[in-house]
């Protein structure tokens, strides 16, 4: 057990040295690649303005999202109305989507409980 701890410490030390060596150049390269997105001068007032613009833009996108939601719901209602003509592929996709939603729900529940599994004695 102690030897594994020493190996882990050695690997962590090497990883931190690697990060320390290359982090500055990676940071500068990342800033250079994304300089068109950087606001000059970087002031608190500019950040407030950008936050307000983002909020207003999100608010302005609500009607389009609302319309898309109702269009999608109409499509699903039409599929349900004509379910006799439903293909196996469409049913499979719907089943996978439902399974994925359930899995995300279960994952969220586990994360919400602090990554604990209740009801199981292991």
Automatic annotation (TrEMBL):
InterPro entries in the cross-refs: ATP_synth_F0_gsu_mt
Subcellular location: Mitochondrion membrane
Alphabetical GO biological process terms: proton motive force-driven ATP synthesis
Pfam families, sorted: ATP-synt_G (PF04718)
Coarse class of the protein's main subcellular location: mitochondrion
UniProt keyword list: ATP synthesis, CF(0), Hydrogen ion transport, Ion transport, Membrane, Mitochondrion, Transport
Gene Ontology molecular-function annotations: proton transmembrane transporter activity
Top-level taxon of the source organism: Eukaryota
Transmembrane feature ranges: none
ATP-binding is among the record's keywords: no
GO annotation, cellular component aspect: mitochondrial membrane; proton-transporting ATP synthase complex
Family named by the database record: Belongs to the ATPase g subunit family.
Protein name as annotated: Mitochondrial ATP synthase subunit G protein
UniProt organism field: Vitis vinifera
